[in-house]
Structure to design on (587 residues):
């Protein structure tokens, strides 16, 4: 199965990556080769096999519901592209 | 002075303890060599150019030693892969996205090595966001292999591998998601260990594929790897997948691990088609050494091993597409200078900030997680992942460790594979299965091919068998000197 240019553009939109108009075909041909490689797994009989998300099948650890973090807002915001008054600045989204 | 740079961490540690050398003297020798060689090798993205910070740390280490408060790593110069967050140096991940990023905190590994008294000399170059096997996809340009400068050092921890191989530092950190410690160690003629998943905290390691990412050491000998592991490993509550286990001494079997009676599993596929003759010959030679010492060769089957690459290149991109969604130009990193609205800002920021391979993996990951394809790709990959793990489990019922090559070829020419992602991916065939299973894997030098390029031997063990792997490798290294050979193109 091969992805069309329209499907590549849709994927790029979902992934929030702007593609240049001339880029789609080249990106598409490489993605299709990769999907051909990984498509091998579809021929494997996995009936009754549980999917595995953690190598050691360990479950998430719980901790007491207590505040354990310091307030480091200033340090974390010091590396942001644009902040003002403790808030992250982004283009206007509500008119 | 040159003998300092040739020495292993173990030897340097003894010389520091005996007051034969000081950390300031040793650190200065490393900084001078880094300054001299980095222009041609491009192993470091950031170095301590003024030298003040490293020398101050070296002085503190010497003071600690004078007070009698020193451990084996106190005063040893190291380098960190530029994916581990450091307050003292920027952390770029080899990407334009993080070109100027200065982390507000240190990674757990960075903190633990600092606590042990190691002196950080800089941050090493790597494939962008650790996605690659050649260290060519870095925004800061390719790393060159000290054995042949027209060739790659492997990747993604290629800067760390080249730095250790060229004797710029005696040891460095790396991270391994599908082979990124073991393969560059092999292609650069040094040693590297990918620990059992969950052994070393991922806190402060910029996430690529969280169910696979694991930090580990690169150095010149198995004994050195053990010393570094003693500092790096251990439970950390800040990593939700960190395992609660007692502290372990990874050096404990160095002198007692028996080769006599050791059952060495050898899967047929490891010596089949597609393996460069020089690689096969060197690995078979190493296997003969082990059997000559009384080890038993056991034929094991890993029937799903050939599917490892396909499974990995579904699961890793899927996790990457999710992890890398955090780079949106809002909280840190690059932001496009021109955009029309919020969505356009995201899309342009990511188009400008990420390189071609990172974008490809994000797109593949987005596809395999998208509605209608999730079951066929992602869920199926997770099921085949379990089949691969079962293969290893039944193999380890019959053997103590699995021996084989790290990579099917030795170091390839810069530019030879970068345009062909699938060809690059297939080179990971021997390292990704162990990653998917979360098993520890050790890479040590075992000879050279017909062009004089180093070949790596991979020892894979069951969960938490690091000490055994290091012990077996140490015995091998006491009888051979492949690990002590110095790259021909970066003589001292």
């Amino acid at each position: 199965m091969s992805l069309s240019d329209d499907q590549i553009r849709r994927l790029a939109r979902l992934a929030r990556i702007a593609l240049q108009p001339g880029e789609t075909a080249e990106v598409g041909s490489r993605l299709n080769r990769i999907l051909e490689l990984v498509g091998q797994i579809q021929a494997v009989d996995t009936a009754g096999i549980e999917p595995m998300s953690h190598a050691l099948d360990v479950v998430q650890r719980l901790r007491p519901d207590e505040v354990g973090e310091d307030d480091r807002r200033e340090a974390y915001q010091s590396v942001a592209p644009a902040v003002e008054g403790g808030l992250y600045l982004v283009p206007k989204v509500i008119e | 002075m040159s003998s300092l740079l040739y020495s292993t961490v173990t030897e340097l540690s003894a010389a520091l303890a005996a007051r034969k050398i000081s950390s300031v003297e040793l650190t200065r020798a490393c900084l001078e060599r880094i300054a001299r060689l980095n222009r041609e090798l491009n192993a470091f993205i950031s170095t301590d150019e003024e030298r003040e910070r490293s020398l101050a740390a070296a002085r503190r280490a010497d003071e600690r030693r004078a007070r009698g408060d020193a451990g084996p790593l106190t005063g040893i110069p190291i380098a960190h892969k530029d994916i581990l967050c450091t307050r003292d140096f920027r952390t770029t991940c080899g990407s334009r996205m993080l070109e100027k990023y200065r982390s507000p905190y240190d990674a757990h590994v960075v903190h633990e090595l600092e606590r042990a008294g190691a002196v950080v000399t800089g941050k090493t170059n790597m494939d962008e966001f650790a996605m690659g096997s050649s260290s060519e996809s870095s925004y800061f340009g390719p790393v060159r292999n000290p054995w042949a400068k027209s060739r790659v050092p492997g990747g993604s921890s290629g800067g760390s591998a080249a730095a250790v191989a060229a004797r710029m530092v005696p040891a460095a950190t790396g991270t391994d998601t599908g082979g990124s410690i073991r393969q560059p160690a092999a292609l650069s003629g040094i040693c590297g260990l990918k620990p059992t998943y969950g052994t070393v905290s991922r806190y402060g390691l910029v996430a690529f594929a969280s169910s696979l990412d694991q930090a580990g050491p690169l150095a010149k000998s198995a004994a050195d790897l053990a010393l570094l592991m003693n500092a790096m490993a251990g439970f950390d509550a800040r990593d939700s997948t960190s395992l609660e286990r007692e502290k372990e001494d990874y050096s404990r079997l160095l002198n007692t691990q028996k080769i006599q009676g050791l059952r060495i599993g050898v899967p047929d596929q490891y010596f089949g088609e597609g393996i460069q003759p020089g690689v096969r010959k060197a690995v078979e030679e190493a296997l003969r050494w082990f059997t000559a010492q009384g080890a038993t060769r056991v034929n094991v089957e890993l029937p799903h091993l050939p599917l490892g690459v396909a499974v990995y290149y579904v699961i890793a991109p899927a996790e990457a597409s999710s992890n890398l969604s955090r780079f949106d130009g809002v909280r840190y990193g690059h932001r496009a200078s021109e955009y029309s609205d919020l969505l356009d800002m995201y899309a342009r920021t990511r188009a400008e900030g990420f390189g071609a391979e990172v974008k490809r993996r994000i797109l593949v990951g987005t596809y395999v997680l998208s509605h209608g394809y999730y079951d066929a790709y992602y869920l199926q990959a997770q099921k085949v992942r379990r089949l691969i793990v079962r293969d290893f489990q039944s193999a380890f019922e019959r053997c103590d460790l699995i021996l084989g090559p790290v990579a099917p070829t030795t170091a390839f020419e810069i530019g030879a594979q970068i345009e062909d992602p699938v060809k690059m991916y297939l080179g990971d065939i021997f390292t990704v299965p162990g990653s998917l299973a979360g098993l520890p894997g050790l890479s040590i030098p075992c000879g050279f091919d017909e062009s004089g390029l180093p070949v790596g031997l991979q020892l894979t063990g069951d969960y938490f068998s690091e000490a055994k792997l290091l012990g077996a490798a140490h015995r091998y290294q006491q009888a051979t000197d492949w690990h002590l050979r110095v790259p021909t193109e970066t003589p001292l």
In short: Chain A has a mean pLDDT of 92.
